[in-house]
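Quick bug: Aldo/keto reductase output formatted oddly.
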Amino acid sequence: MQYRQLGDTELKVSELSFGTWAIGGSWGQTNDKESLKALETAMDQGVNFFDTADVYGDGHSEELLAKATKGKEDDIHIATKFCRAGDIYSPETYSMQQVRDYCENSLKRLQRERLDLYQIHCPPIEILKNGQVFEVLDKLQAEGKIRHYGVSVETVEEGLLCLENPNVKALQVIFNVLRQKPLEVLLPKAKEKGVGIIARVPLASGLLTGKFTNEYTFESDDHRHFNRDGESFNVGETFGGLKFEKGVDLVQQLLWIKQGRKHLSSAALRWILDQDEVTTVIPGFKTVAQVENNLESLKVPSFSEEELEKLHTFYKTEVAEHIRGAY
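Here's what came back:
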């Protein structure tokens, strides 16, 4: 495992880390025993950073992380998020008292005294423009409740706006082979500003595992069923904004990247790891096998300049026009 510095902070995090949305809920059936085994497997292989949120299973993923990391609090870094348990459009959700409550509740579930990274969870751009929430986070940081703070964003515009605040130390962005726009301006600007990049939805909600066909049926409590077209939250969080059937078709055209790289998923993660502006990539998981498969990306060959150019051209000519929503 290699470790990368999170922007200009003192935190060094595993280049391949994990997101815990899936083990909390909204990705179909889960098994806590298997989830805990998977977390243990990841840590045994050197993973020292996990991303979660207070709304993942109504706090369940935070509770699982508390169990898995008990006694390892100094070695395992946790990033959590807030605001989506309330009305994300209301300024009251970002008030000092409300954010303090969110923070204290997360600390309680995580059984920690301080959060390593506290992130605003995809707020509307008006909230970011207002800027009061950053003052609230500055106060919590001064009190020692949080070590650093960042923002999980939906669009490049939101990300660039966040970079104007010198105390934002991390941006979490949707970034994968089928969602390359952040490469153009946002990632280079973040590196210039000393802001870490956490790449989420790296496998386009499973599309880049290559296991789906157009006929695949998702469980009713899986967001890939109930948010397929952005009915519940931003469409970009599900299949990276692509229509499922179009995504399946595009993935078939990408199968060449797994040659010499074992799995399509390990190749797709390797592509992200090859972007030096990225601090860490956070695929999700529900099983030990999925953790192990994702860790394979650390062993497979990097992409050549010719391959990188081919993938960029593919994105520009075949993919970009099909991504829905602002991004």
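Actually, after a second look the formatting is fine. Residues 3-203+263-301 form a domain with the TIM Barrel fold (CATH 3.20.20.100). Closing.
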